[in-house]
Amino acid sequence: MLLCLDIGNSQIHAGVFEGDVLRCQFRKTTHPLGSSDEVGVFLSAVLRENGVDPKAVRRTAICSVVPQAHYSVRAACVKYFHCEPFVLQAGAKTGLRVRYRNPHEVGADRIAGAIAAALRRPATPLIVVDCGTATTFDVVTSEGDYLGGAILPGVGISVESLAGKTARLPTVEIRRPATALGRSTVESIQAGVYHGHVGAIQRLLGELAREVFGGQRPHVVGTGGFTRLFEEEKLFDEIVPELVLLGLKRAEDLNRES
Questions:
Q1: What residues contact 227, with CB distance under 8 A and at least 6 apart?
Q2: Which of 59, 120, 209, 248 has its CB surrounded by the most CB atoms within 10 Å?
């Protein structure tokens, strides 16, 4: 079995593959992460709770945007699963041609999402929208070129920033408001954050389609923890919550075979 770990700024999203089947998924907050032993004990316990014998995990794979978490997670994989993890980073085989000016700058999670989207929709112009701590846009051509994209603050950051940087605005529940007109401070924040984010996504999708694909609408894949929040807006052609895990598995397969 293969244990894949997507280490994000807010959460670690993990999944176990048996062959091509995703047996289970689970999440852990990234901060505080804890020591390598704490990470290893957590992973082993969660696997057992999901009906997976930790001894059956023979391979591990990591993609991370949190450098300080890498040592603990890698050490946990070595000690508790007795294998050196594959790490998705610049120079690894991806099945894509990465056209970023500096490939070392692009987040591993963005590459993993692009890999999986291209695998699901070969020879198709694509935009992957990952609604997480940040909302990222990643463009892949029908020829398999990863071009880059755009990054903006996610809805969670937006709410936290308003509460933390203002004297009287509260932290609010992140949800789809009934109306765009807020009749209280809480409703006004919810309306502004939600509809402002929808507008930003729509505008960026339109601009990227115009600049890269000559105005032709690409296939848009949504992923990330906040994607379902926008499901009723029909921004995405499909929503694949496990997209990054699927891409990480594909990258591990490519590099192991080579």
A1: 129, 130, 131, 236, 239, 241
A2: 248
Regarding whether 218 and 126 lie in a shared domain, the answer is yes
In this prediction the pTM is 0.95
109 is catalytic: yes
Please write the tens of the pLDDT for every residue from 24-78. 999 999 999 999 999 999 999 999 999 999 999 999 999 999 999 999 999 999 9
Q: Cα separation of 77 and 75, whole Å?
A: 5
Same structural domain, 32 and 143: no
Catalytic member of 20, 37, 53, 109: 109
pLDDT band at 258 (very low <50, low <70, confident <90, very high): confident
- 231 with 125, same domain? yes
* 129: containing domain: 97-246
d(CA 221, CA 228): 12
* % of the chain beyond a pLDDT of 90: 99
Q: What is the pLDDT of residue 183?
A: 96
Distance of CA 99 to the CA centre of its chain: 20
Residue 257: its pLDDT value, please? Answer: 82
How far out from the chain centre does Cα 136 lie? 9
- Give the burial class of 234: count Cβ atoms within 10 A of its Cβ; 0-12 exposed, 13-18 middle, 19 or more buried: exposed
Q: Is 251 a domain residue?
A: no
- The number of folded domains in the chain is 2
